[in-house]
Amino acid sequence: MSKNITIIGCDDYATSLANVLADNHHKVIIYTNDEKIVDQINYEHKNSKYLNDLKINQNIKATNCLLASLENCEVLVLASKKDQNLIQEIINYAKRKMIIVDAYPSLKDDLTSFSTDIIDIFKTNDILKDYAVIFGANIASEIVKKQPTCFNVCSNDIKSAEIVANIFDNEYFNCLVSQNILSCEIANSFNKVFALCGGILTGLECSINTFSSLFTIIVQSIDRVMKNFNNYSKDSFLNFATLSSFLKSYYDNDSLEFKLGLMIAKYNDAQKAIEELNYNIENLNILINVEKMCKTIKKPLTFFILLNKILYNNNRPISLLNKVFTAFKL
Predict the structure, then answer these.
(1) What positions does the domain Glycerol-3-phosphate dehydrogenase NAD-dependent C-terminal occupy (predicted)?
(2) In this structure, what CATH number is given to the domain that contains residue 80?
(3) What is the DSSP secondary structure assignment for residue 282, as one 8-state letter?
(4) Angle 55-137-97 (CA atoms, 0-180°, nearest 5)?
């Protein structure tokens, strides 16, 4: 059954999800305050700022008016970083209970689940019908080209996950359901770390053995951290959403973090690389948050400490290999 769906966000990822939903014959509207993107989606059926000249489903509409985007909304997809002011506006303008889908799940600064806060906010204001998160390997151009991929759809209530999965699922966009919201939050919070490291190793011209070994070290380091802050098990961490996202990011040479890693290796100078790429270092705040939280539990983790020293103290990137590998006795 066709639903009225509003997407909050207009980047490549948000647009690719809109395309999936429009292909499934839902009525999709994208909300963004970027008027150029609004006009291009409505009249040219593309989003060249993020997806070059790729054509998207011509039935997708866009608007810069939040009130208009929520007029008939049955399903609200949050496909951008959390903005408390925007969330409050959504609450003010919402006219009915909605299915809320968080397509940009994340951890809070203290590394605990953000989903409980989102659920509470919408439930308290009586506009939450169902809640789920959706996440997976998300190179947007491939999704728009209908190249097969799989996403996890997770909710505390498995029936809610199934409802949302049925909205998104089609022949090229497979949806797997579970109750493991935390895994999606971990995946999205740490995938930039994998991209950064993949770029550094590529810049250092490392071998496949080295790539494989460091990937395992990163996974183990995240596991050691996360089990201290959440209702957590390794089985829930090493699942489809996390591993597919981590692998994608590790080799995604189009991502900004991968390019940053390449330039750090090239210059042996993170600050020069950050300035030349005009990179917003706040995108990697997860590394600062992890080091802070490790201090609270008095469990310093060599990998995160060294990566922060490379980014903020201009340590040479080769130290990521020399010292981390020694610490793990590989």
Answers:
(1) 181-321
(2) 3.40.50.720
(3) G
(4) 80
Intra-chain end-to-end CA distance of the chain, in Å: 54
**CA separation for the pair 25, 175 (Å, rounded):** 17
Do 163 and 215 lie in one domain? The reply is: no
Instruction: Say yes or no: 159 and 64 in one domain.
Output: yes
| Spatial separation of the C-alpha atoms in residues 103 and 188, rounded to whole Å | 10
Name the helix (H) or strand (E) containing 4.
strand 4-8
Which residues contribute to the annotated binding site for NAD(+)?
Answer: 140
Is residue 68, in this structure, part of any structural domain at all? yes
Please list the pLDDT of the chain residue by residue as tens digits (330 residues).
899 999 999 999 999 999 999 999 999 999 999 999 999 999 999 999 999 999 999 999 999 999 999 999 999 999 998 888 999 999 999 989 999 999 999 999 999 999 999 999 999 999 999 999 999 988 999 999 999 999 999 999 999 999 999 999 999 999 999 999 998 999 999 999 999 999 999 999 999 999 999 999 999 899 888 888 777 777 667 777 788 899 999 999 999 999 999 999 999 999 999 999 999 999 999 999 999 888 887 777 888 999 999 999 999 999 888 777 776 554
- Picking from 85, 107, 74, 83, the residue whose alpha carbon sits closest to that of residue 3 is 74
Residue 270: helix, strand or coil by DSSP? helix
From CA 184, how far away is CA 240, in angstroms rounded? Answer: 9
Written as one letter, the residue type at 168 is F
Which residues are known binding-site members?
140
Of 139, 156, 179, the last residue of a domain is 179
- Run of H or E residues at 78: strand 75-78
